[in-house]
Amino acid sequence: MRLIQTSGVSGSVAASRSAILKTIYYRGPIKRSDIAKQLALTMPTITTNINHMIASGLVKEENKLDSSANSLGRKARPVSIIAEARHFVGIEMRGFQRIISVQDFLGRTLYCKKDGTPHPSYEENLKLSCDLLYEALDACGFTLNDITGIGFCVPGVVNSAEGRLDTLPSYGWRDKAVRADVASMTGYSGPISVENNACARAYGLRLLQKDLLMDVHNFTYFFISRGIACPLFLDTGNVVGSVVGAGEVGHMIMQPDGLLCSCGNRGCLEAYSSDVAVITRCKEALQQGKAPLLQQFCPDGEPSMHDIIAAQSAGDEDVRKIAQEAVYRIGIAVANVVNFASSRIMFIDGVLFGVPENRELLLNVIHTNLCNALHSDTEFRFVEPNDYSGANGAAALAIHDSLAYGDF
Question: Prior bond to 29 cis, omega within 30?
């Protein structure tokens, strides 16, 4: 559960203000009367709070009058968010790269940069991440005081309420006080939201796809990278909700007593279908003199996922077999998740699915194993992998949390 911080206003006022701002944010431009109907609040409450937000520079009245208004008095003007009113930073920190994004209040990217130098040390990764923050501020002409919130995401098991990374087995990172460490290293005194990187991507998608998801009350985000996760995003009532759990489906047991996973258990999905697992099997094929087309893409014997899907697309049968075995297990896992969570839409994000035949196989496996009597209307959408989606999602997380504070 995410923390909602307020100061200077009562809980009820903060809750009303937050709900009103969220409604404007996700449904604006919108009339005051429509906000009142949606939230079941009185017009005086709506007017008082919106006037406060206008005075604070958060929202504005649109110049265009509402043509549907029948009143003989003052015509209604819809209200909307001012994009330049607030600025947010998102950072994704992973052992092999660090990425930063600076966004305005509407989630539009003002600056982004990545550092792809691998470092196994948590402390070194944190230092380099904070260096990226200083560079971004300089590039944008901002100071720390110009930033309303920072979102920081990492893979692994994250305690978002406490801002801690509990464990990231693949790098041996355990019990890291991420929020406190970022605040200490940067001197930033504003809110710092910390989350799992798959969860952050779900927040980013909820923000950027708000028109698509306007009336969808739950969706899942199946993310395949070096690990595998599937958080559930749940909306509640008339307001945009939040991620429920990190969805560490990578540690779903697919084969009892199977391959050893980085978590120490055997038979986890991650051991068979993560990017690391696919790369490992392809390297083994290269060492055995197999996968001739992949050899052309990576003569050094160190394939990337992009090399692998390029070789599969070019017709390398050895690579195809490895990739599709991984996809088959992912399909079983996806069907299990949908059978359990009943999500209205599942978004699927993974480099493997840049190959059309992998998408086709996945959907076939899902529908073969899905309980269609219960979930026949679940929609599956593939997300184009993007190096910046984690950092953008972290910034969206910071925006999401700022909307919940209620004290503007």
Answer: yes
Q: Which residues pair with 100 in a beta bridge?
A: 91, 113
- Whole-number Å distance between alpha carbons of 274 and 154: 17
Q: Are 259 and 271 in contact (CB under 8 A)?
A: yes
Tell me what pLDDT residue 376 has: 65
State phi, psi for 65 to the nearest 5 degrees: -75, 150
Q: Are 130 and 115 in contact (CB under 8 A)?
A: no
Q: Residue holding tokens 């910034």?
A: 395
Rg of the chain on CA atoms, in Å: 23
Which residues does 79 contact at the CB level (< 8 Å), separation at least 6? 24, 28, 29, 30, 31, 32, 50, 54, 59, 60, 61, 62
The structure tokens listed for 19 are 């709900």
Looking at residue 292, what DSSP letter applies? H
For residue 354, the one-letter residue type is G
Residue 201 Cα distances to 139, 206, 382, angstroms: 25, 9, 13
Which DSSP symbol is given to 249? G
Query: Could you give the CA distance from residue 404 to residue 240 in angstroms, rounded to a whole number?
Result: 10
The one-letter amino acid code at 228 reads I
Three-point CA angle 325, 365, 295, nearest 5°: 25
Instruction: Please work out, in degrees rounded to the nearest 5, the angle formed at the alpha carbon of residue 191 by the alpha carbons of 190 and 196.
Output: 145
> Rounded to whole angstroms, how far apart are CA atoms 215 and 237?
11
Give me 38's structure tokens.
């949606």
Rounded Cα distance between 387 and 373, Å, is: 37
**Beta-carbon contacts of residue 190 (< 8 Å; ≥ 6 apart):** 144, 147, 148, 149, 150
The pLDDT score that the predictor gives to residue 1 is 38
Query: Which structure tokens are listed for 262?
Result: 């980085």
Two structure tokens written together for 129: 């991440």
Asked whether the CA dihedral 255, 308, 200, 121 is positive or negative, the reply is positive
Q: Say what angle helices 389-405 and 197-208 make with each other, to 10 degrees.
A: 70
Predicted TM-score (pTM) of the model is: 0.90
216 band by pLDDT with thresholds 50, 70 and 90: confident
Distance CA 74, CA 61 (A): 13
- Judged against a pLDDT cut of 70, whether residue 122 lies above it is answered with yes
Q: Considering only CA atoms, which of 171, 143, 144 is closest in space to residue 157?
A: 171
